[in-house]
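Quick log. Single chain, no ligands specified.
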Amino acid sequence: MPPSRARTTLALALLLLATTACTAAEHEPTPAPQSLTVSRQARQLRLPLDAYASTVAETHLVEDAQDILIRRCMKDQGMDWKTLPPVDAQDTEPPNLRRYGADEAEALRNGYHPSPDPPSVIRRSRAWDARDALPAEVRRAAYGPSGKGGCLKAADRQLVGDTAPLDFHAFNQLTGTALETSRRTPEVRDALHRWHTCMAKAGYDYPDPYTAAGDERWETSEPTSAERATARADVACQKSTQLVKEWAAAETRIQHHLIQQNTHRLHEAKARKDHWLAAARHVLNHEG
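-> predicted structure:
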């Protein structure tokens, strides 16, 4: 597993792909509250394919175990290695936040802008950035010329032997298929039509929540009053039309069907993930 930052959930990536291409602004992060504020609905939304995904916390777990083994390897070469700071458990987003549109709690506060990263997420991100500035000799020892060698390769070999790297392709492909297929079901199309009618009565003309969230008018450094008003109307219409409930029910049915069709592929990917996680926990439990 090459060095990488654990990002937000696949749901956010799917939402961004479905609306508009975005890049993160490169500036000092705004101070954030101690924990993420999300709605109860977003916290509780779970889908069948989630069982085969790797959460942000699990990605951090593997990274932390790799870091310990890299530090030992670097020490043998007479070099220091600073491990990544942890991310607080409450600072990781729920797995399906924004999957069907804006989250109520976020919309009320930030419109369609994502909430600022919490302090522990900022600290870990800055630690990753600091590694980009390491002396060339240190980077080569840690990652090798390819970025996948050096002490990282040795750490992975010590961690899981010849076990292949984590495979996210099956999950990513199937969860994307499930989202798009569920969007075309009669019940979701009806719910989206009701949402559109509700928004029109409030003075907004968007065909679906993705389009509302992706309006180019919201490409500002801070949420505007118009953006917040639109987002408030959006989530109010989602609630009154039971859009999320209808969509989640349809996608749950479709995901169960996809799991049945891809049982071997998914179980193989999950077994590989479970092996990595067990090995990582073993390293972390025996550290010190």
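The longest helix spans residues 263-285.
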